[in-house]
TrEMBL record:
It comes from Halohasta litorea. This is Glutathione S-transferase N-terminal domain-containing protein. InterPro entries: GLR_AS, Glutathione_S-Trfase_N, Thioredoxin-like_sf. Residues 6-88 form the GST N-terminal domain. Pfam families: GST_N_3.
Amino acid sequence: MTASAPQLELYNLQGCPYCKKVRRALDDLGVAYETHTVPPARSDRTEVYAASGQYGVPVLVDHANDIEGMAESDDIVDYLYAEYGDGETPPPSGIVDRLLSRFF
């Protein structure tokens, strides 16, 4: 990886609410990341499979912390806030998260 390559990569599907949750967390934290938009058909997601061993999205890769292919949006959001947050502000959850997902 080159020095200018982003440390975080997100495998993402347009219209996926779980991917949107992770993108919102990354944006909220102000963390730079590279997005890989994947095909809608799971069988065509060879790039996702190579990174994570599964075909679902979202999938996060964090080169700085040797995280290869973290799946599950809730786990990714918790990880991002723990690793890149201020240590005090928890990620949105419950009704707040549902409202943010609906309107943003």
